[in-house]
Amino acid sequence: MIRFHVNIDHVATLRNARGTAYPDPVFAAQICEQAGADGITLHLREDRRHVKDDDVARMRAAIGTVMNLEMAATDEMTAIARRVKPDVITLVPERRQERTTEGGLDVMGAREPIAKVASMCREVGIKLSLFIAPDLEQIAASKAVGAEQVELHTGEYCHLSGPAQRVELERLRAGAVRAAELGLEVAAGHGLTRHNVIGVAGIVPIVELNIGHAVIADAVFDGLAGAVRGFRAAIERGVAARGP
Ligand code: PXP
Predict the structure, then answer these.
(1) From the centroid of its chain, how far is CA 224?
(2) Per-residue pLDDT, 243
(3) DSSP-based three-state secondary structure for 154
(4) What is the pLDDT of residues 130-180, one digit of tens each?
(5) Fewer C-beta neighbours within 10 Å, C or N terminus of the chain?
């Protein structure tokens, strides 16, 4: 069994493009849950370019599965998370100019702010996940700083093709195995599509996938529930390839 979390940020981006009240990301989250998503992921960015504070509060009340709040390790976000109490916090690096989250966290370089969030999470009872490259040093540092889970950045794998992509898939596999040996839960995400997700879902220690852009893109043609079900089928193809 692999958990499939849908990132609904792009629904908010579409709403914000016209300043209308629709499409509502909370309604989208409910449709995803009904179509079989195991959780909902949302990223409250410093510039509020997609979901806004009010969406986060409404989402907390509406989500019946797992709420995974992606955020930067800042005092502002920590205060919001302490109030909202998502089930999971995923810490991500954030640069204002980037189109989306481009790289993984430098856990060693940001030890102090991450440790502050980790201590709030322990106090309030929130699971902490760190979004990192499949790099053995970052994995060890994630364990040391008190994370329960790492989310391995699949962006590089998704940009590549052919033999280079297979090399990156093996790097993801090695990272996932190492993280699991350290007792960390292993998630993965970024850039995944119905096609390239199959290889990642085949990696044994991976127990969770966070997917946004391609789900919402597929929804334009298939409807949101259809897109979620299509992704689930692709993920199950990858899981089946793990063998017995
Ligand atoms: N995981 C994390 C930590 C992310 O920041 C994002 C993008 O917000 C995703 C997963 C989803 O990536 P994509 O939208 O490319 O599927």
Answers:
(1) 18
(2) 76
(3) coil
(4) 999 999 999 999 999 999 999 999 999 999 999 999 999 999 999 999 999
(5) C
120: buried, middle or exposed (CB in 10 Å: 19+, 13-18, 0-12)? Answer: middle
Q: How large is the angle between the packed helices 75-84 and 53-62, nearest 10 degrees? A: 30
Residue 114 backbone dihedrals phi, psi, to 5 degrees = -70, -40
The alpha carbons of the chain give a radius of gyration, in whole angstroms, of 17
Q: Which atom of ligand 1 is nearest to the CA of 155?
A: 15
Nearest CA to ligand 1 atom 12: 190
Q: Which CATH class is domain 3-241?
A: alpha beta
Q: Which of 178, 101, 172 is nearest to 137 (CA)?
A: 178
- Burial class from Cβ neighbours inside 10 Å (0-12, 13-18, 19+) for residue 232 reads middle
Rounded CA gap, 59 and 55, in Å? 6
Please indicate whether residue 191, judged by its CB atom, sits closer than 6 Å to ligand 1. Answer: yes
Nearest CA owner, ligand 1 atom 9: 190
Which segments in the chain show pLDDT lower than 50? Answer: none
Report field, pTM of the whole predicted structure over 0.90:
yes
210 lines ligand 1 (CB under 6 A): yes
Ligand 1 and 150: CB distance under 6 A: no
Structural tokens at position 184: 């960390």
- Please indicate whether residue 43, judged by its CB atom, sits closer than 6 Å to ligand 1: yes
Write down the pLDDT at residue 50.
95
